[in-house]
Amino acid sequence: QVQLVESGGGSVQAGGSLRLSCAASVYSGSTIRMGWFRQAPGKEREGVAAITSGGGRTVYVDSVKGRFTIFQDNAKNTVYLQMNTLKPEDTAMYYCAADWGLGGSLSPSAYKYWGQGTQVTVSS
Q1: Is the pLDDT assigned to residue 83 strictly greater than 90?
Q2: Over the stretch 25-60, which tens digit does the pLDDT of each residue have?
Q3: Phi–psi pair at 65, nearest 5 degrees
Q4: Mean local confidence (pLDDT), 55-68
């Protein structure tokens, strides 16, 4: 069982930045892949960014490329999502996800463990 604790959401004006954090309850060096997803009201959950175990490879949905960066601190078992140049359409509940294995994926079905979510609101 993996527990995920997210933090860092909030409200910001368009063009601003936020950093989300997700701490995983695993031993340092565990083979675990992680990702960030978001879900706006009335919409399906969408994969935003994912990172492979060890951080060697990342993948992003097209709408955030060049604005968002996913990275991890293996010593702290924590993955981050740095979000810059935020837009109103980025407004959503953001979820951290994790599962055992190497490859990163933007598909929700690739993850077994989910955090409680943190709200991001971007005003115009």
Answers
A1: yes
A2: 987 677 889 999 999 999 999 999 999 887 779 999
A3: -60, 135
A4: 94
Asked if 53 contacts 8 with a C-beta cutoff of 8 angstroms, the reply is: no
- CB contact at 8 A, 76 and 57: no
Give the pLDDT confidence of 95-105 residue by residue, as tens digits: 999 998 888 89
> Given this model, what pLDDT does residue 104 score?
85
Collect all residues with Cβ–Cβ distance below 8 Å to 100 and sequence separation of at least 6: 30, 31, 32, 33, 112
| DSSP of 28-89 | TT--EEEEEEEE-TTS--EEEEEE-TTS--EEE-GGGTTTEEEEEEGGGTEEEEEE-S--GG
Nearest Cα residue to 39 out of 99, 90, 106, 5: 90
Please check whether residue 25 is in contact with residue 79, taking contact to mean a CB–CB distance below 8 angstroms.
Answer: no
Q: Which of 95, 82, 97, 94 is nearest to 24 (CA)?
A: 97
